[in-house]
Description:
408 residues; mainly alpha; Glycosyltransferase; three-stranded antiparallel beta sheet; two-stranded antiparallel ribbon; globular
Amino acid sequence: MHETTTIGDDHHTGFWLDTDTHRSWLRADAARQIEFFRASLRPDGGFYQLDGQGAPIQGLAQELFATTRMVHSFALASKAGFDDCDVMIDHGMQFIMNRHHDPVHDGYVWSLAGEQIEDDRKLAYGHAFVMLAASSAMQVGHPAARGLLDDITRVMTDHFWEAEAGLFADEANRDWTPFSTYHGFNANMHSTESLLNVFEATGDAQYLDMAGSILNFFVHKMAARNEFRLPEHYTQDWVIDRTYAGDPMFRPAGTTPGHSFEMARLLLQHWDLSGRRDDRAPVAARQLVDRALSDAWNPVSGGLIYTVGFDGTPDVTSRYWWPVTEAIGVLATLIKLECKATDEEWYRRLWKFADSTFIDHEHGGWYPEIDPDGAYTQVQFTGKPDIYHSLQASLLPLTPGISGAFSG
């Protein structure tokens, strides 16, 4: 049984982030997560997915986004002062460079099964996380990080970046021939995350400019024209595809409020790194957050529903861990920036809900989904998929500013 601490003092009239009690609790939750996910290290390379108790699940393919997010997460932990993260970082870096990398056609394949490629598609979503892993590993001094960062920058620029639109395309076959005309928000959002992380690692303004182009399109154009809901799916010409209904988990129809929380935080990060010159950014971030909370919060049983229609009508009402973690992250950012009581109310409400439903205080880590009664269930996810979202929820509030984690 893991030792637990008090999440925060309800009688404290200020902000939990200013209290030693809450900050200690955040570090304790991060420590449990880090300890739990150390068991994912595979002796033959890469990482296992873990079940709810932390045992490796045999026979699952190793997907690019999971490998890379593990590297980023343990680099984040290292920057936050946790010990013994280098083995996990190096293990993942070697697997990205030696196994996910495609020596025949360039780029990085989506998934591997044993010694074989299981899914050889080239997806911008996965490549964005290669960039995130490389830039995070660079910030903690991994010797191969610069080389990987240079390679993924070239690949992303040569194969995915559409200069006229100032956005990233989404997908290609292994040999880079097209297999669809789909364009999407999600790959661009995570590319923005990675570009900002690279800028913090290198100071190279080209990354900041590319992130700004993506943010301008999706926030100041698309969200602003759609009541600050973010359309997810687009045609080849970057026109909203309101009829698109792809994979119900990864490309659901309608809009996804959890992504609004992520994009609002990235908008504020970009604004901060750019010298806080664009007065539209804090206003737009607030509008994204307010709309998403209004659309997604379940007023009866708590939590955030997964998707809504373009008019805000609830669609997929399942409740997953990651929208809660992303809402916590952006609310912590807004509190640091504006110190509003309403943000503190939401911050406490979300942490209390996470603490009572998603956080596994016995084994560590967070459960990924809950049923209508608030109990752990496994409908869309097997075990505990990865550490990325939940670790950031615990560590990003502790950072000294609103830009990169522990960079000050």
